[in-house]
């Protein structure tokens, strides 16, 4: 996963059944969970570093427990344009984040 420096990484587990009736479980590695955040007017790439830092701090403050002593929750933030909208946004990854243009 881009920016992944820690040992732990997200793994998606998908369950299903084959045509023959056998149960299967697929472990998907290397996927960076993300979400979009609308970018305010005037937001540019110059703001990305500060946005990432502040968002990381906010997530850490809001964590109910941090038994693994995680210090980085936002691995990256990018400016992008969400395909379904014409708005600029931040695309934020859980353990990586991004901005949509």
Automatic annotation (TrEMBL):
Q: Which reaction does it catalyse?
A: DNA(n) + a 2'-deoxyribonucleoside 5'-triphosphate = DNA(n+1) + diphosphate
User: Which SUPFAM superfamilies does the record match to this protein?
Assistant: Ribonuclease H-like
Query: InterPro entries per the record?
Result: DNA_pol_type-B, DPOD/Z_N, RNaseH-like_sf
**A single MF term (Gene Ontology):** DNA-directed DNA polymerase activity
Picking any one GO biological process from the record gives: base-excision repair, gap-filling
Q: Its domain of life? A: Eukaryota
GO CC terms for this protein?
A: delta DNA polymerase complex
Residue intervals of the DNA polymerase delta/zeta catalytic subunit N-terminal domain: 30-82
Q: What is the name attached to this protein's record?
A: 3'-5' exodeoxyribonuclease
Upper classification of the organism: Eukaryota, Metazoa, Chordata, Craniata, Vertebrata
